[in-house]
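A reminder from the course coordinator: this example appears on the midterm review sheet, so study it carefully.

Given structure:
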């Protein structure tokens, strides 16, 4: 789904990028950039998809990293960081 289609469908539901931004505590510019694929944010992409009432992989079929689970907690992030350090330090 391209940025214009996202905007149009949001408008049909009575929403816009600035409303999403305010609800998420983000800038309208970030919302626009994520919708147009100029920036990446799983949480913003997920919010856009939820506002549209669609699965994230339907709204952003071209961004594979959005299709899996997001790292949602600091503990999850720390674990992924440890995994990455171990992978990068592997001497194989």
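Designed residues:
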């Amino acid at each position: 789904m391209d940025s214009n289609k996202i905007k149009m469908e949001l408008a049909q539901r009575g929403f816009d990028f600035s409303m999403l931004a305010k609800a998420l505590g983000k800038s309208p510019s970030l919302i626009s950039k994520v919708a147009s694929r100029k920036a990446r944010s799983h949480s913003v992409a997920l919010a856009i998809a939820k506002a549209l009432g669609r699965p994230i992989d339907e709204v952003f079929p071209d961004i594979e990293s959005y299709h899996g689970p997001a790292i949602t907690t600091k503990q999850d992030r720390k674990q992924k960081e440890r995994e990455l350090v171990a992978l990068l330090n592997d001497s194989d």
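The mean pLDDT is 91. DSSP finds six helices and no strands in the chain.
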